[in-house]
Amino acid sequence: MHDIGKNIVGVVLQCNSYEVIDMGVMVPADRILAKAREVNADIIGLSGLITPSLDEMVHVAKEMQRQGFTIPLLIGGATTSKLHTAVKIEPQYAHPVIHVKDASRAVGVAGSLLSKEMKEKYVAGVRAEYVQIRERRASRDEARDLVPLTKAQANRTPIDWEHYQPPVPAEPGVQSFHDIPLEEIAAYIDWTFFFHAWELRGRYPQILDDPEKGVEARKLFDDAKAMLHRIITEKWLGAAAVIGLFPANAVGDDIAVYTDESRSETLLTFHCLRKQGKQPPGKYNECLADYIAPAETGIPDYVGGFACTAGIGIDPRVAAFEADHDDYSAIMLKAIADRLAEALAEMLHARVRTRHWRYAPDETLSNEDMIEERYQGIRPAMGYPASPDHTEKDLLWQALDAERNTGIWLTESKAMVPTAAVSGLYFSHPDSRYFAVGKLARDQVADYAERKGMPLPEIERWLAPNLAYEAD
Does the first or last residue of the chain, that is N or C, have fewer Cβ atoms within 10 Å of its Cβ? Predict the structure, then answer.
């Protein structure tokens, strides 16, 4: 679960006279339910940021049913949806299960569930809506809109490799960076998503002059700038990063990473997924491997990877704020640390393009240009639309020796700790672009599981949101 969103929900509820017991992140079901019994809780709330959280929520619902709970279960977080709640979670628990879209709605939902006058009608309305969602889902054949994997592979991104020479990295191999100056990183901050973290939707800087949100946004921005100044001058946080640029070639839908330029020995293989939806003429069934020269061409190509954090030392600072009952500052610090981590990823990518890989040495882009991605190449993250499988992070960590080089480690669900961290791959080809893999048919998932050497049910669990079929 994402600590910022959870904290904001807690603060909003506490400001409306609700007592909130925050158990932290990655808490197992048995501890959550034991605590709920101990304090005689009225409601249990779960929040999830990455896809493995979805399975854990289903497990908690099943455990609540098995243990005889009757209190409502609230579901929220970036990875959740009303659809997933209705189809996967609510059927597991005979009592109210409610998806809460954002923190601003938490008070209204809690109030309705705890009101003797309102609860019955409110719950009946939600249940009726969820029944309709399940019926619509059951009548929709998502696999009907997909093509067989072989046909998707035949419609790959067309790249003229015969007339293209991949750029050779100026500084190949793995490099780590420590004590990166925060003032340099801060220049790359995209403030738009800072406001989104506080559930103020809108683009920066326009949001500062918004007739409805402007006053609140300006106050928040002033507070953020003041704290950022202290973070930098008093060195509250530390930043570290690792990058790697490796010889590589595509082998089918995989990317083989070689130990050296002889390309005779494979260090590891990144596994990619291909868009399987039916495409109109002129559109392609894209796959990240399409952007790397196929091994059979004999063309030497390269792929990069990175991991970075701006959250070193954050925990004791947050704990101090929380001990002082200053939840606002604790949330503010986490939100700024997240922005600094994303800014560090942007800064690293710029340096890779101009210095380390040096395929765009004369690039001169403003921060706005970089936010709008007006540069050559992409840096897709594992667990996100173009590469939805979080387990690929294990391979990235292996290639970069990321934990030793940065201190960032992966949880069982492949979340990064510190949470103010970003990681992904680098692609240099001018045609490379971001895309969403979308829904997947059984044939590709089975092929992918075989390529990765993992049991099909395990891969289906990691790719659950992308499946266009019901896993066995």
Answer: C
Question: Token digits for 231?
Answer: 């973070």
Instruction: Single out the residue of 331, 323, 288 nearest to residue 425, CA to CA.
Output: 288
Which is it for strands 421-426 and 301-312: parallel, antiparallel or unpaired? Answer: antiparallel
398: Cα separation from own chain's centroid: 20
Crossing angle of helices 327-351 and 314-323, in 10° steps, is: 160
- Pairing, β 301-312 against β 409-410: unpaired
Q: What is the longest distance spanned by two Cα atoms in the chain?
A: 74
The residue among 300, 287, 270 whose CA lies nearest residue 434 is 287
DSSP code for 26: S
Burial 104-125 (b: 16+ CB within 10 A, else e): ebbbebbebbeeeeeeeebbee
Backbone angle region of 39, left / alpha / beta, with phi > 0 → left and psi within -120 to 50 → alpha = alpha
CA distance 129 to 124: 9
**Is the pLDDT at 49 greater than 60, yes or no?**
yes
Over the stretch 232-255, which tens digit does the pLDDT of each residue have?
Answer: 999 999 999 999 999 999 999 999
Q: Can you give the pLDDT at residue 144?
A: 86
Q: What is the pLDDT of residue 1?
A: 38
Q: How confident is the model at residue 45 (pLDDT cuts 50, 70, 90)?
A: very high
Average pLDDT, the chain: 95
Beta bridge mates, 426: 304
DSSP class of residue 265?
S
CA within 13 Å, CB half, 419: 20
- Report pLDDT for 70: 97
- Judge contact between 445 and 431, C-beta under 8 A: no
Partners of 271 in the β-ladder: 254
State how far the Cα of 437 lies from the Cα of 75, in Å rounded to an integer. 26
Q: What is the SS3 assignment for 75? A: strand
Please state, in angstroms and rounded to a whole number, the distance separating the CA atoms of residues 468 and 426. Answer: 29
Walk me through the domains of the chain, giving residue ranges and CATH numbers.
Answer: 3-139 (3.40.50.280), 149-466 (3.10.196.10)
CB-based contacts of 168, cutoff 8 Å, min separation 6: 300, 302
How confident is the model at residue 288, as a pLDDT?
98
pLDDT score for 470 = 87
User: Any idea which residue has 């992904």 for tokens?
Assistant: 424
What's the rounded Cα separation, in Å, for the pair 467 and 464?
A: 5
Is 90 exceeded by the pLDDT of residue 11? Answer: no
The pLDDT value recorded for residue 51 is: 73
Pick the more confident residue, 261 or 55.
261
User: Residue 162 burial (CB < 10 Å; 0-12/13-18/19+)?
Assistant: exposed
